[in-house]
Amino acid sequence: MRKLACSLFALVLSLATLAQPKADYNVVPLPQHIGQLDTTRHFTLRPHFTIAYTAGNAELERNAEFLQQYVKELTQMNSTTVPSGKGVKADITLQLRPAKQRTTQPEAYTLNIDKKGILISANSGEGIFRAIQTLRKSLPIEDCQEVLFPYAVIDDEARFAYRGQHLDVARHFFDAEYIKTFIDILALHGINQFHWHITDDQGWRFEVKSMPELAPKASIRKKTVIGRNCYSKHSYLYDNTEYGRGCYYTQQQMRDIVRYAAERYINIIPEIDLPGHMVAALSVYPELGCTGGPYEVWPVWGVADDVLCAGNPRTMEFLKKVLTEVCDIFPSRYIHIGGDESPRVRWKHCPKCQAKMKELGLGREAELQTYINKELDRFLTAKGRTLIGWDETLEGGLSENAVVMSWRGYAGGIEAARQHHPVIMTPTGNCYLDYYQIKGESATQPLGIGGYLPLSKVYGMEPVPEGLSQEEQKYIWGAQCNLWTEYVLSSDHVEFMLLPRLAAMSEVQWLSPEKKDFKAFEKRLQHTLRMYEKFGYKYCTKYE
Ligand SMILES: [Zn+2]
Are residues 183 and 152 in the same domain? Predict the structure, then answer.
């Protein structure tokens, strides 16, 4: 009888446990190591729990508040944050590792879950924040009276130091408020670099105080080509609708965004694309173009022949003025100067450019671009900054400190790594989120640039290509996906293109290759998708 009662009791207990909301550490990106997992024993978190942070450490206090907010969002459980100290018994404790236990990886962290509670320890505030994201993603998404955390020791650190995501706000504009939402999405996926493409032929999107007329004028496109550069009877077809009036960020807004991102341990790398992709600026300063214009903010998509005149000394003055303000707004060590898709046809026929080539003893127009890059490399280096360029910057020879972003496949990245330049891999075939994620043109997805990049292909990316020596492999600094917005008109569409492919990229960026497994990832992804729904992110539900 007693035996029966006991087993009945055990059954009831286990049923009760089954019904209780449980944390699941199989999140995206998967932590590198989930050890000592014991699903039969749990630490129970209940409403009004406490989160302790090291007394006097404002950074950890802020992190404790993030955690408090995240738990509330997903489970409705309230908590208090307290400085740790004698007599403080906290359910969750945030603490930095003692100096002698710290490793070199700033983002490495450990989550210890046992009968005493949840202990988050890390090398830095950044590591604490990454740990908090893992803990957050392990939570059930429902109103809870308690959450059971299975005992475990989770040890984690990112595979790559550079884990980026790009957004083009020049072709279509997304306001400052939405950029913060975008940054929230990046934080959820463990991204630490936001590559912000803020100028292009079709729009100039940031305030330059020394040239107050630039942004207000160059942000306005009088019309935009219909469809994918629709063309009829020798001319493009336009919508004849003005786009972009007032659509640029003030410096104040950008500083606010920089701070917002930094609190989430995301660095913002601004990109001023040059010497091509500059028609919007030329429309205000036609004297900076080889033909002298007139130019209008470009209403079509593609690569414009009109670029900055490399032979005009005022071009360099213009660029240095712009970059001075960029450096003032953005503390990022890395500044992107574009360098892609810059045709040399105008330079070939421009007396100023030809005179400059003669003066410098250059044999090819491509070297004019290298001349510009070298000049700006010196300029940025003197300011303690480092230049990043697209892989075309290799063509006339790289400037000394340049970082290369390899987009036309892997070849540029391989070449740059062999020359011992840091490389960010972002090949179109794995990383271009403007490509379709559902096969074929169809009613199930809005118009896109074309291509086909399903979730599995993003997941399958390997940033370190074969054929590099051990030494050369060290120059592969990381990977990122790019989101160009010629055909992306709304923030809903941004999210549709970004999610869930960003989740796949986050495992490329974070997880060791031998631990990657697409089938297991798809399983883990389901909880991530529920989280997107909870936050109102408009992800692609029919991903392939
Ligand atoms: Zn010229």
Answer: no
Which of 133, 156, 179 corresponds to the end of one domain? 156
- The residue range of the domain holding 23 is 14-156
Confidence band, pLDDT 50/70/90 cuts, at residue 101 = confident
pLDDT of residue 5: 66
Comparing C-alpha atoms, which of 112, 93, 105 is closest to residue 38? 112
Question: How far, in Å, CA of 214 to CA of 248, rounded?
Answer: 10
Backbone angles phi, psi at 285, to 5 degrees: -125, 70
- Residue 14's pLDDT band, with cuts at 50, 70 and 90, is low
Total length of the chain: 544
Give yes or no: residues 118 and 184 share one domain. Answer: no
CA of 288 to the centre of ligand 1 (A): 8
The answer to whether residue 26 is domain-embedded is yes
- Give residue-wise pLDDT tens across range 320-368: 999 999 999 999 999 999 999 999 999 999 999 999 999 999 999 999 9
Q: If you measure from the C-alpha of residue 323 to the centroid of ligand 1, how many angstroms do you get, rounded to a whole number?
A: 21
Q: Which residues are catalytic?
A: 200, 277, 341
Report residue 116 as tokens: 């005493």
pLDDT at 442 over 80: no
**What is the residue-averaged pLDDT of the chain?**
95
Asked if the structure places residue 450 within a domain, the reply is yes
Q: Are residues 95 and 205 in the same domain?
A: no
CA dihedral 337, 342, 346, 347 (to 10 degrees): 60
| Domain at 149, CATH number | 3.30.379.10
pLDDT at 470 over 90: yes
Question: Does residue 52 contact residue 116 with C-beta atoms inside 8 Å?
Answer: no
Smallest Cα–Cα separation from 429: which of 446, 444, 451? 451
Mean pLDDT for the stretch of residues 210-223: 98
Residues 6+ apart with CB under 8 A from 86: none
Q: How far is the CA of 329 from the centre of ligand 1 (A)?
A: 30
Rounded to an integer, the average pLDDT of 111-121 is: 98
Burial of 490 (0-12, 13-18, 19+ CB in 10 A): middle
The domain boundary, picked from 123, 156, 189, lies at 156
**Proportion of the chain above pLDDT 90, given as a percent:** 90
For residue 350, how far is its CA from the centre of ligand 1 (angstroms)? 5
CA of 238 from ligand 1 middle (Å) equals 30
Do both 119 and 199 map to the same domain?
Answer: no
| CA–CA separation, 63 and 68 (whole Å) | 9
Which 3 state secondary structure label does DSSP give 127? Answer: helix
- Residues 200 and 171: their CA atoms lie apart, in Å, by 7
Q: Is residue 214 part of a domain?
A: no
413 C-alpha to center of ligand 1: Å? 30
Residues 466, 376 within the same domain: yes
